[in-house]
Design a protein that fits this description.
Blueprint lengths: L22 E2 L7 E2 L2 E2 L3 E5 L4 E3 L4 E9 L3 E8 L4 E7 L28 E2 L4 E4 L12 E7 L9 H6 L12 E14 L2 E12 L3 E3 L4 E6 L5 E3 L5 E4 L10 E6 L2 E2 L2 H5 L5 E8 L2
The structure holds zinc ion.
C-alpha cells in the first residue's frame, strides 16, 4: 500500500474525526494513569455515538483485553495504525455490560474482523467497556505512525474534518435531522440540529449540536407530526425557534454531504412539532 507521494512513510495523513457528533476532548496524551502513561486522547461523546474510520484501511477486532474492553485496530492505508478503545458493551441505556464485543453493539453492524473500510465509514459505537466501565462514555483513540510508538493524536484531531453523519462513500443516504429553526428564507433553512438519524442503518447521533444549512426545494412538503399536510414550503415560511424534523431527499453520500457542508443537503419533507 505504501506512502502517498510527497509524504514520508508512516506520516499521519489528514484525518476524518473518529467520532460523529458533539465531542469534548483535550490533549491528555502522556498524562499519568494508573499503570503508566496515557497513550491516546479521550474523546467524550454521547454513548453509542458512531465511531468512524479516520482513514481508509483494514480493521482488526480485539475482544479479549480486560483493560481495553471492546476495541479495534484500524491499519490505515498510510501505514499509520489507530486504536479505538472502550467501545460500547451495553444492550440498554443503563450500564448493563450485557452486550459483549460483537457487531451491532461494540462494532458497526455487519463489521467483520479483517474488513476493509473507507474513510468515514462507521466501524464502532462509543461506550465504556474495559477499565472505563461505569465512567463517562468516551473513545480512547491512539495514533501510531508507521505502526510504531504512539504519538499524541491531538493536533491531528484538531485538523481533522468532522462528519455530520456516517455513511459508506457513494451509498445512497437519507437523514432525519431534529432540531430548531434558526432562520428560514425562500429555498433555504438553517436548522440548529440536536440529534439525527441516518439511513441505511438508522444510525442515531444523539448529540449533534451543530447548525446545518439546508436547501429547501419548492416541492418540499410541510406536515404535522401525524403526517397531515400543512403546506408546501413555497407557501409557508418556518418560524425561528420552531421545533422541526427535516427529512432529506435520498442522495449519494459524497464527502461534501457527509461533512454537512452548507447547501449540500436538500429537504424532501419537514415535520413541525407542535
Ligand atoms: Zn484513555
Amino acid at each position: 500500500m505504501g506512502a502517498q507521494p510527497g509524504r514520508p512513510a508512516g506520516a499521519v495523513p489528514p484525518l476524518i474525526f473518529p467520532v460523529v457528533g458533539s465531542v469534548s476532548y483535550s490533549d491528555d496524551f502522556g498524562d499519568a494513569r494508573g499503570q503508566g502513561r496515557h497513550d491516546g486522547n479521550d474523546l467524550l461523546a454521547a454513548k453509542r455515538s458512531p465511531a468512524v474510520a479516520a482513514e481508509a484501511g483494514t480493521v482488526t477486532l480485539w475482544t479479549t483485553s480486560a483493560r481495553a474492553g471492546c476495541m479495534l485496530y484500524l491499519r490505515g492505508a498510510s501505514g499509520t495504525t489507530y486504536l479505538y478503545v472502550h467501545l460500547n458493551n451495553d444492550l440498554g441505556e443503563a450500564n448493563d455490560n450485557r452486550g459483549g464485543c460483537v457487531a451491532g453493539v461494540a462494532y458497526a453492524k455487519g463489521l467483520v474482523d479483517g474488513a476493509r473500510v473507507a474513510a468515514g465509514q462507521q466501524i464502532g459505537y462509543v461506550g465504556d467497556s474495559g477499565d472505563a466501565d461505569g465512567a463517562a462514555a468516551h473513545l480512547h483513540f491512539e495514533v501510531h505512525p508507521g505502526d510504531g510508538a504512539a504519538v499524541s493524536p491531538y493536533r491531528f484531531l484538531r485538523a481533522a474534518r468532522r462528519l455530520l453523519f456516517a455513511a459508506r462513500p457513494g451509498s445512497t443516504f437519507t437523514l432525519a435531522l431534529r432540531g430548531t429553526v434558526a432562520t428560514s428564507l425562500a429555498g433555504h433553512l438553517s436548522l440548529k440540529v440536536d440529534s439525527l438519524r441516518s439511513w441505511p442503518g438508522g444510525v442515531r447521533v444523539a448529540k449533534v449540536e451543530r447548525t446545518v444549512e439546508l436547501q429547501v426545494p419548492a416541492a418540499t412538503i410541510v406536515t404535522d407530526p401525524l403526517g397531515a399536510l400543512l403546506a408546501t414550503a413555497r407557501l409557508r415560511s418556518l418560524e425561528p425557534g420552531q421545533s422541526a424534523t427535516a427529512w432529506t431527499a435520498p442522495a449519494p453520500a459524497t464527502l461534501q454531504a457527509r461533512l454537512g457542508l452548507p447547501l449540500t443537503l436538500a429537504t424532501e419533507r419537514v415535520v413541525l412539532a407542535g
